[in-house]
C-alpha cells in the first residue's frame, strides 16, 4: 500500500466525494441536529468514531464474515460502536446528548456508514479502510460544522454560545427551524455545484488551449 493511495482515499472523502455536499448522504442528522455548532460537532465526532471503528473491524475480519450474513454482521459491529459513542456523550456532555436525542442511536442506520463497509472496508486492507473512514467522516464533520455554524450565527447571533452581534441584531428564527436547514443546505449545495462547474470549465479551457498549441 503506497502513501499516495492512502492520501487519495483520505482526501477524496473531504472534498471530491464529500458525503453531504457531493453524495448527499446522511441528510437526516444533517438537517436535524445542525441548529448549533456544538451539536453539529458532537454528532460529527460520534459519527467519526463509529465509522473509523467499524471500518477497521470490518476490514480486519472481512475474510471471516460469511457473505450470506455480511450486512447483519456489519450492523452488529456498527451498533457496538454507536452504543459506546452514545454512552460516552451521555457521561461527558449530557446537555448535548439530550439535544441530539435519538439521532445518536440512529447512526446505526446511517446509509453513509453502512455503505462504506459494503463498498470499501470489506474489499480493502486495514490501512486503506482507515484512510477512507477518516476522510469520509472528516468530510461529514466539516459539512455538519459549516451548516451548524451558519444556522447558529444567523438564528441566534451566537457561535458556540458566544454573542457575536450587538443588542440590535434581529435573529433569523427560521434558521433554527427545519425549513431553515433545508434552505441553507440548498444554498450550500448550490455553491459547491458552482465551484465544481467553474473548475470543470477551467480544466476544459486549459485542455482546449493545449490542443490548439499542440
From TrEMBL:
Biological process annotations from GO: electron transport chain
Listed under GO cellular component are: endomembrane system; plasma membrane
User: According to its UniProt record, where is this protein mainly located?
Assistant: membrane
UniProtKB keywords: Cell inner membrane, Cell membrane, Electron transport, Membrane, Translocase, Transmembrane, Transmembrane helix, Transport
Q: Where are the transmembrane segments?
A: 37-61, 73-94, 128-151, 171-192
Membrane topology, as annotated: Multi-pass membrane protein
Q: Where in the cell is it found?
A: Cell inner membrane; Endomembrane system
Q: Which domain of life is it from?
A: Bacteria
- Could you tell me the EC number(s) of this protein? 7.-.-.-
Which InterPro entries does the entry mention?
A: NqrDE/RnfAE, RnfE
Q: What top-level class of enzyme does the UniProt entry assign?
A: translocase
On subunit structure and binding partners, the annotation says: The complex is composed of six subunits: RnfA, RnfB, RnfC, RnfD, RnfE and RnfG.
What does this protein do, in the record's words? Part of a membrane-bound complex that couples electron transfer with translocation of ions across the membrane.
Family in the record: Belongs to the NqrDE/RnfAE family.
* Name of the protein in its database record: Ion-translocating oxidoreductase complex subunit E
Report the gene name: rnfE
Amino acid at each position: 500500500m503506497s502513501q499516495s493511495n492512502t492520501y487519495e482515499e483520505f482526501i477524496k472523502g473531504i472534498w471530491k466525494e464529500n458525503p453531504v455536499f457531493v453524495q448527499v448522504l446522511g441528510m437526516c442528522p444533517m438537517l436535524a441536529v445542525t441548529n448549533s455548532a456544538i451539536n453539529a460537532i458532537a454528532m460529527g465526532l460520534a459519527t467519526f468514531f463509529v465509522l473509523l471503528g467499524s471500518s477497521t473491524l470490518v476490514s480486519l475480519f472481512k475474510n471471516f464474515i460469511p457473505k450470506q450474513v455480511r450486512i447483519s454482521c456489519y450492523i452488529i459491529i456498527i451498533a457496538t460502536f454507536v452504543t459506546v459513542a452514545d454512552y460516552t456523550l451521555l457521561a461527558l456532555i449530557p446537555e448535548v446528548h439530550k439535544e441530539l436525542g435519538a439521532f445518536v442511536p440512529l447512526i446505526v442506520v446511517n446509509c453513509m456508514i453502512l455503505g462504506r463497509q459494503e463498498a470499501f472496508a470489506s474489499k480493502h486492507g486495514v490501512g486503506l479502510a482507515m484512510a477512507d473512514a477518516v476522510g469520509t467522516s472528516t468530510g461529514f464533520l466539516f459539512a455538519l460544522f459549516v451548516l451548524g455554524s451558519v444556522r447558529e450565527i444567523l438564528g441566534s447571533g451566537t457561535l458556540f454560545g458566544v454573542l457575536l452581534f450587538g443588542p440590535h441584531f434581529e435573529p433569523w428564527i427560521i434558521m433554527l427551524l427545519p425549513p431553515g436547514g433545508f434552505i441553507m443546505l440548498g444554498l450550500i449545495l448550490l455553491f459547491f455545484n458552482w465551484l465544481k462547474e467553474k473548475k470543470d470549465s477551467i480544466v476544459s479551457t486549459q485542455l482546449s488551449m493545449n490542443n490548439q498549441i499542440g
